[in-house]
């Protein structure tokens, strides 16, 4: 996969968002939580014809989404998911947001309640470059996927691929598909090998369903 793949007519997505979009079938009901400026949601609505909705914490991002013609409201994944009814969406997306929530397990349980299938992506804190920074510098690492200093980061629950797999088991979810990305956006080839992904993936994307 190229660093900036064309995801559809006139719309370019980041590699991780393009990988998520590939997991979403056309004409489905989709909720994108933490949808940012709406790039992924716009692609899904315009190119895949989904019935798309968004939930975003930052008002400026909400305004950008609305300017794109998207149906997005301001909200918080930690508090507002409880207002959605069971099975309200075919797919629920949580992209690069789980580690910034206060209660990741509760958030994941809510996602599995309101969505028939759930897509979650997150930066892998077990990557070897992060481990090397700890070893050589003895400080909280700063990478392209985790660009903040320890005192101003929105990420409060760092996790590795192995940590996330343990959480999947704890909430009794099933992994239907998983993709690991390197720092340059390339997909790691082959089936999931937990130890390999945990050490070398920069990001991971999981498609989950409730058992």
What do you see in this structure?
It is a single chain. By secondary structure, this protein is an alpha/beta fold. It has a single domain, classed as Vaccinia Virus protein VP39 (Rossmann fold, 3-Layer(aba) Sandwich). The protein has helices at 15-21, 39-48, 59-67, 104-114, 128-137, 161-170, 194-200, and strands spanning 6-8, 11-12, 29-33, 51-56, 72-74, 89-95, 115-123, 173-181, 203-210. The strands form two sheets. The chain has a seven-stranded mixed sheet with strand order 5-4-3-6-7-9-8, with helices on both faces. Strands 1-2 form a two-stranded antiparallel sheet. 40% of the residues are buried.
Percent in helix: 25-40%
* Top CATH class: Alpha Beta
* Secondary-structure element order, N to C: EEHEHEHEEHEHHEHE
Strands side by side in the biggest sheet: 5-4-3-6-7-9-8
CATH superfamily: Vaccinia Virus protein VP39
- Count of distinct structural domains: 1
What global shape is seen?
A: globular
Q: Helix/strand-derived class?
A: alpha/beta
> How much of the sequence is in beta strands?
15-25%
Under CATH, the topology is which? Answer: Rossmann fold
């Amino acid at each position: 996969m190229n660093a900036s793949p064309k995801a559809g007519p006139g719309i370019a997505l980041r590699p991780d968002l393009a990988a998520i979009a590939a997991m979403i079938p056309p004409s489905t009901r989709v909720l994108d939580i933490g949808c940012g400026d709406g790039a992924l949601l716009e692609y899904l609505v315009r190119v895949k014809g989904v019935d798309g909705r968004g939930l975003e914490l930052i008002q400026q991002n909400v305004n950008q989404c609305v300017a794109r013609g998207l149906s997005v409201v301001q909200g918080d994944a930690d508090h507002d998911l409880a207002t959605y009814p069971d099975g309200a969406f075919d797919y629920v997306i949580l992209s690069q947001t789980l580690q910034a929530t206060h209660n990741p397990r509760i958030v994941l349980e809510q996602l599995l309640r309101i969505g028939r299938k759930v897509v979650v992506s997150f930066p892998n804190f077990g990557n070897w470059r992060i481990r090397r920074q700890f070893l050589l510098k003895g400080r909280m690492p700063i990478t392209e996927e985790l660009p903040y200093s320890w005192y101003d980061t929105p990420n409060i629950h760092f996790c590795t691929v192995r940590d996330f797999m343990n959480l999947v088991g704890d909430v009794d979810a099933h992994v239907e598909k998983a993709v690991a990305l390197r720092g340059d956006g390339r997909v790691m080839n082959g089936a999931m090998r937990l130890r390999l992904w945990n050490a070398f993936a920069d990001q991971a994307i999981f498609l989950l369903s409730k058992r």
